Amino acid sequence: MIDTHCHLETLTNIDEVVNKMGNNKMITAGTDLESNKKVLELTKKYPNVYGVIGYHPEFADNIKYEDLEFLEQHINDEKIVGIGEIGLDYYYSKENKEKQIELFKKQIKLAKKYNKTIVIHSREALEDTYNILKEEDIKDLKVVMHCYSGSKEMALRFKEFNMKFGIGGVVTFKNASKLKEVVKCLDLEDLLLETDTPYLTPEPYRGKINEPYNIIYVAKEIAKIKEIKLEKVLKETTDNAISQFDLT
Ligand code: NI
């Protein structure tokens, strides 16, 4: 199994949680310059840790030219498998939409230039996200929609892109009927497992600090919803992650 989205640098027990994953891989995601530097360090330190680097929309007001330069300088580093997490967050702020959009587009252009997978964060902004992907003409690009929270209708529209959907702990929550519907209607080949560690811890550990190993509970819930074997979920979502991030 592969945790396709976590923020390992936020943890105090990184050695422990990484070792617990054994040979299973995880992809840790940057959000700002500091965390991107940590991502580079962690991918060098642990054989089973891969990384994506990028600038989260929350920081759109503060990203400088040098920060984007740093991204471009390291985009082809060993074990850096994409640009993320990038996107739009209108829940966090609607005041700086234009800046968020500009930063998102700049990073998409960089991904196109180096043919890198993009990992999208989109909160209360799915319509604008869709329009930007369309406008930027990303048909050759591999896309991951991290922590997808939209409707099944919207998910089907997004399938016109080469997109896979990151499913995390939320799917195990009792009140997550919308996401359970999404999982049911998408094919297994559209899905990736993720934790978003340290956030969104699945049941039965909801409320505690999350860790990559907990994707097993996400996989179990997907197996239950789709009425298939857990082994099949683990095998196919692993294959999906390998192909979407060109993991070796
Ligand atoms: Ni995240």
What would you note in describing this structure?
This protein has 248 residues and is α/β, with parallel strands linked by helices. It has a single domain (2-244), classed as Alpha-Beta Barrel (TIM Barrel). It contains 9 helices and 8 strands. The chain has helices at residues 14-20, 33-45, 65-74, 97-114, 126-135, 152-158, 177-185, 215-226, 230-244, and strands at residues 2-6, 25-29, 49-53, 80-89, 117-123, 142-145, 162-167, 191-193. It has an 8-stranded parallel sheet, sandwiched between helices. Strand 1 (2-6), helix 1 (14-20) and strand 2 (25-29) form a beta-alpha-beta unit. Helix 8 (215-226) packs across helix 9. The site of nickel (II) ion (NI) has 6 residues, from loops. Nickel (II) ion binds next to loops.
| Proper CATH architecture | Alpha-Beta Barrel
Uncertain segments: none
Number of strands: 8
CATH superfamily heading: Metal-dependent hydrolases
As a whole number of angstroms, the C-alpha radius of gyration is: 17 Å
Helix and strand composition category: alpha/beta
Q: What is the averaged pLDDT score? A: 97
CATH class: Alpha Beta
Q: In which range does the helix fraction lie?
A: 40-55%
Could you give a short account of the major beta sheet?
A: 8 strands, parallel
